[in-house]
Write a structure and sequence with these properties.
The protein has 128 residues and is α+β, with helices and mostly antiparallel strands. The protein has one domain. Strands 1-2-3 form a 3-stranded antiparallel sheet. A hairpin with a 2-residue loop joins strand 2 and strand 3. Helix 1 runs antiparallel to helix 2 and helix 1 crosses helix 3. InterPro entries: YhjD-like.
């Protein structure tokens, strides 16, 4: 087996980076919700917490998968247009960047997946 990271490991590292960005965004939105005076604030905060829990679960799974592959991801640097990462894997280093402009639609798709999961659960509860 080559020491180079596989395409799957690089994809998982990129997914991990995106999920960590998404978690930060959702956490910031939750903090804003907590400061609001909306009538349904507690519902929105609880729902947001559930989304964060799901994201954290997926982050843990990917980190475990990478650890089993003797790989770990670290953030290298960032600027207003991109975030740079380094994947250390079996003694090999793979660098990649995520362009913020490119990440926005991907983050939207990821968030939609988590929100739809919560919506489905709420719908099922409402049917009972």
């Amino acid at each position: 087996m080559s020491n180079r990271p596989t395409a799957e490991e690089i994809d998982k590292a990129r997914e991990l980076a995106l999920l960590e960005i998404l978690r930060d965004i959702v956490c910031n939105n939750r903090d804003d919700l907590k400061l609001s005076s909306m009538t349904l604030k507690s519902l929105y905060v609880s729902t947001t917490d559930a989304v964060i829990d799901d994201i954290n679960n997926d982050i843990r799974k990917i980190k475990l998968l990478l650890k089993q592959s003797e790989a770990n991801l670290s953030k290298e640097r960032s600027n207003e247009n991109e975030l740079s990462y380094v994947l250390h894997c079996r003694g090999y280093t793979e660098k990649f960047s995520i362009l913020k402009g490119t990440a926005k639609p991907e983050l939207g798709v990821l968030l939609k997946k988590y929100v739809q999961k919560i919506e489905k659960l709420l719908f099922e509860i409402g049917k009972k």
